[in-house]
TrEMBL record:
Residues 4-155 form the N-acetyltransferase domain. It comes from the Bacteria. InterPro entries: Acyl_CoA_acyltransferase, Diverse_Substrate_AcTransf, GNAT_dom. Keywords: Acyltransferase, Transferase. It holds the Pfam family Acetyltransf_1. The keyword ATP-binding does not apply. It comes from Actinokineospora diospyrosa. The keyword Acyltransferase applies. This is Acetyltransferase (GNAT) family protein.
Length: 155
């Protein structure tokens, strides 16, 4: 989509990222587990690179310069052999901008970063119940890895 500008998010994008995080909570039916002040502090630290230095955020803007989505990702090591991979943790596009190419543009930008920086692959997960995301990823030509199981421990 040529009407979308994608770039790495900076501290100047804090308000937009916080707004998008709030929308994600509503989309998944989650409640914010931290205080608004703590969420802002954590997000500011990620954007400044002072915490989780491998965590980065791509942000998408429309032609009106409105933030319409983002992709958060981290470097992982090891991947295949001793290579590194990128893990797409979250891909979110505002509902009224879905199907217009913003999600595809975010993924393509992430793949470009992976290629340019020598990562061996990009990986991600999606909920089994999220059929829309699965159709989207299928259209991108991604393949499902059925040989892995996802585990989580709440702390």
């Amino acid at each position: 989509m040529s009407n979308v500008d994608i770039r790495l998010a900076t501290e100047g994008d804090l308000k937009d990222i916080l707004d998008l995080l709030g929308e994600i909570d509503k989309y998944y039916g989650d409640e914010m587990t931290e205080s608004p002040e703590e969420r802002e502090r954590q997000t500011r630290e990620i954007l400044s690179g002072s915490e989780f230095k491998s965590a980065r955020i791509l942000i998408a803007f429309n032609m009106s310069n409105d933030a319409i989505g983002f992709a958060s990702f981290s470097a992982l090591w090891p991947a295949a052999g001793s290579s590194s991979s990128l893990y797409l943790k979250e891909l979110y596009v505002r509902e009224n901008h879905r199907t217009l190419g913003a999600g595809k543009a975010l993924v393509q930008h992430l793949l470009k970063i992976a290629t340019e920086q020598g990562y061996s692959r990009v990986e991600w997960t999606t909920d089994r119940s999220n059929g829309g995301a699965q159709k989207f990823y299928d259209k991108l030509g991604a393949t499902v890895n059925t040989g892995k199981l996802f585990y989580r421990v709440e702390v």
